[in-house]
Amino acid sequence: MDTFSKRRLIILGIFLGVGAIFILRLFSLQITSKTYKQFATRNVLRKITIYPARGFIYDRNNNLMVYNKAAYDLMIIPREVKTFDTTELCNIVQLDRVELRDAIRKAKQYSYYKPSIVAGQISPDIYAPLQEKLYKYPGFFVQSRTLREYPNKSAAHVLGFVGEVSPKTLETDKYYRQGDYIGVSGLEKAYEQELRGIKGVQKSMVDVHNRIKGKYNEGKEDTTAVLGNNLLTGLDANLIAYAELLLTNKRGAVVAIDPPTGEIIAMVSAPSYDPNLLVGRQRSKNYSVLDRDSINKPMWNRAVIGRYPPGSTFKLANALIALEEHAISPLDRFSCSGKGSKPISCTHSHVSPLAVREGIRESCNSFFWNAFRQIMNRKGNSEESFQAWREYITSFGFGQKLSPELSSEVRGSIPEVSLYDKWYGSRHWNAMTIRSLAIGQGEIEATPLQMVNLCAMIANRGYYIMPHIVKAIQTPTREVRQLEFEKKVVNVSPENFATVIEGMQAVIEETKLQNTVKLDNITICGKTGTVQNPHGADHSAFVGFAPKDNPKIAIVVFIENAGFGATYAAPIAGLLMEKFLNDSISPKHKDIEQKLIDTDLLDVKEVKKSL
Q1: Contact 525, 498 (CB under 8 A)
Q2: What was the pLDDT predicted at 42?
Q3: Contact between 215 and 50 (Cβ < 8 Å)
Q4: What pLDDT is stored for residue 407 in this prediction?
Q5: Which residues, listed in sequence order, are joined to residue 264 by a DSSP beta bridge?
Q6: Which residues are within 8 A (CB) of 314 and not within 5 positions of it... i.e. 6 or more apart?
Q7: Do 559 and 540 meet the contact criterion of CB atoms below 8 Å apart?
Q8: How is 79-122 classified by DSSP, letter by letter?
Q9: Closest residue by Cα to residue 408 from 103, 69, 156
Q10: Contact 410, 307 (CB under 8 A)
Q11: pLDDT the model gives residue 26
C-alpha cells in the first residue's frame, strides 16, 4: 500500500472516530441522561435560596425578646414570564398596578435571568391563596422567609431592626444578594454575622404550569440552611418595659448596668416606638413617619447619642480627683459665703461650711468650685494641672465610645488644652476662666451611658467593665460561648471612693429623697443633677447604685426639660431600682409611681419643683 492510501485510511479513521464520539454523546444526552430528559419535557431548573431563620435574642432571665414568624417573598424571573392577569395578581398580593409594574421593570433592569422580589414579606394569610393560583403565572414563584417578632413591643433602640441590604453592602459582602435582609441598627447590626446563619440551596424542576415536579439530580446538589446563633443578653425585658412606662410623654433616657460585670440591664430612650412597626410590608412607610418626627426624634437612641452637660452628677468625678490629688482632704471645709465662694454660688440654702460628704449631699456649687480651683493649682501652671485633670476624666470613660455594640454611640466631649489656648491664648487662662467645669457645665458633653459608667466605677470602688449588652452566644446545638470584655482600673485609692460613697448615701437618706427613693431593706447611694439648658427648661438628672455593698445595679435617669434632679429623675430611678431588686413596688411608692406615669413633659412651659 502506497503512502497516499495509508494517509487516506488514517484520515478516514479519524473522521469515523469523531463521528462515533458524537453519536455516543448524543445517545447519552437524549436517551440515557435523566437531566436532559427533564429539560426535553419542557421542565425548567429553578435554584431556590433557603434562608435560615435569624437567631433569637434572650434577656437575662431567658425571656424571648426577639423571635421569628413565617413570611414569603413573591419572586420573578423576567425571561420566564408569560402574559398574565395583572388585576388578579394585584388583588391577591395586595399591590396596585403601578407598584407591580415598577417591580417588574426594576427586575428586568437587574437581570432577565436572576430572580428579583416583586412583593416582599407576604403574610401567611396572603400566601395561601397565592400558592393555589401560582400556576397561572409562569416566571413567578414564592420564596420562604422569616420576619422578626417583638413580643414585648419595647427595647426598640437596643434590639434594632432589619432592612433590605444596601447596594454598597452588595458590593463588599458576597454573602448577600439583591433583596436580602440585613441588620440595620442595634444588636441586629452589631451581631449580624452571628444572627444571620448560613444560606442553603434547593434545586428543583418546574413544569410549564409553574409547578415543582421534583428535585434536580435527586437533590445531590442541595445544601441545608444553618440557623443563626442566639444572643444571650444581660437585659431585663420587664425592667425595660417598666422604664418605658415611667417615661411616657417624656424625653430622655435610662441606662442601668450590673457594675461587677458591665452588663447593660436596661437601655431606654424616650419617646420610643413599637419595634414591630419596622417589620413587614409597612416598614418603609412607618420608618418615614418616625424619621420625619423632628420634634420627638423617636428613632434617636438618646442613651448613646444624647450629648448633655452632666451637671451636678459630674461633681462625683471632681470629688474623686480632688481627693486623689490631695488638693483637698475629706475633712477640709469650704464656705458658701464670702469672697472665696464666688463667683459660683449655691442654688439653695444649707449648712456651711461643708466637707466632702456634706458637699455631695447638698450639691454645694461653692464647695466644688473651691475643690476644682485647688486641683488647678496643683501643678506648675494651669495647662499642666488641667491636663492631669483631663487624664483622670477620660480614664473614667468620658470623651470616648464605650460600647462596640452600639454603632450610633457618640464620644461626647471633654475639652483639651488646645481649645482654651485657642480661645484665650497660652498661659492666659486658669481655674476661674473654666470654672463651669467644676459643676459639670461649660464645655463638657457626656452621654447617659458615660454618666452611668462613672456610677458603676464608683460602685465597684475603682474599676469598670466595658459596658455591653450581649454576654454570650448560643449555637443552634445549644453550645454557649461566653464573651469577654476589657476591665478598666482607674488610679483612685479605695479610701477616696469610701468618702464619696458616704456622701452619695447621705443624698438618699438625709434629704427629701428619703421620701421618694429610699428603701427600707436596701441601702441606695445616689447623686442628683439639675442641668442648665440654654435652650429651655433645665434637665433633670440622677445617678445611683444599690445596694451600697455588693452592688447589683447602677443607674442613670436623664429627663429633658424636667427641672430639678430630685423632682423627676431621682424618683424614676428609685422605682426602677426597687423594681429590679425587689421585683415589685411597695405600697408607699404607688402614688409616686402613678404621678410619674401621668406627668406629661413633652411641652414644658414651667417645671414643677415637686410631684
Answers
A1: no
A2: 42
A3: no
A4: 87
A5: 257
A6: 439, 440, 444, 446, 529
A7: yes
A8: GG-----HHHHHHHHT--HHHHHHHHHHHHHH-SSS-EEEEEEE
A9: 156
A10: yes
A11: 67
What one-character DSSP code corresponds to residue 226? B
C-alpha cell at position 91: 388583588
- Angle between helix 417-424 and helix 382-395 axes, rounded to 10 deg: 140
Walk across the sheet containing 200-206 and list its strands.
Answer: 44-50, 200-206, 212-215
Question: CB of 383 within 8 A of CB of 397?
Answer: no
Residues β-bridged to residue 451:
none
Q: Give bridge partners of residue 488 from the DSSP assignment.
A: 464
Give me the pLDDT at residue 516, please. 94
In this structure, what are the phi and psi dihedrals at residue 313, rounded to the nearest 5 degrees?
Answer: -60, -25
* Distance (Å, whole) CA 243 – CA 255: 10
Consecutive 10-residue runs of the chain (611 residues): their mean pLDDT? 64 71 67 51 68 96 95 89 90 90 90 86 88 89 89 95 91 88 95 94 74 72 90 98 97 98 98 93 89 93 96 97 96 79 72 92 94 90 94 97 92 96 93 94 96 98 98 96 96 96 97 94 96 87 98 98 94 98 95 96 69 63
pLDDT given at position 478: 93
Residues 563, 538 contacting (CB under 8 angstroms): yes
- The confidence score (pLDDT) of residue 509 equals 97
Contact 113/79 with Cβ under 8 angstroms?
Answer: yes
Compute the distance between CA of residue 501 and CA of residue 495 in angstroms, rounded to an integer: 10
Domain boundary assignment for the chain: 46-195+202-233, 237-598
All three cell numbers of 214, joined, read 421534583
* SS3 assignment, position 447: coil
Q: Sign of the C-alpha dihedral, residues 180, 184, 190, 191?
A: negative
Report the largest interatomic distance among the alpha carbons of the chain, rounded to a whole angstrom.
Answer: 134
- Contact 306/179 with Cβ under 8 angstroms? no
* Adjacent-strand bridge partners of 182: 163
Nearest to 232 by CA among 483, 579, 467: 483
Q: Is 63 exposed, middle or buried (0-12, 13-18, 19+ CB in 10 A)?
A: middle
What CATH topology corresponds to 46-195+202-233? Penicillin-binding protein 2a (Domain 2) (3.90.1310)
CA distances from 453 to 140, 145, 205, 393 (A): 54, 40, 59, 12
Residue 444 neighbours by CB under 8 Å, 6+ apart = 309, 310, 314, 398, 412, 413, 414, 415, 437
**Cell output for 205:** 424542576
Look up residue 549 and give its three cell numbers: 455593698
Whole-number Cα distances in Å, 356 to 321, 370, 492, 588: 12, 11, 16, 32
Q: 206 - beta bridge partners?
A: 44, 212
Note the CATH number of domain 237-598. Answer: 3.40.710.10
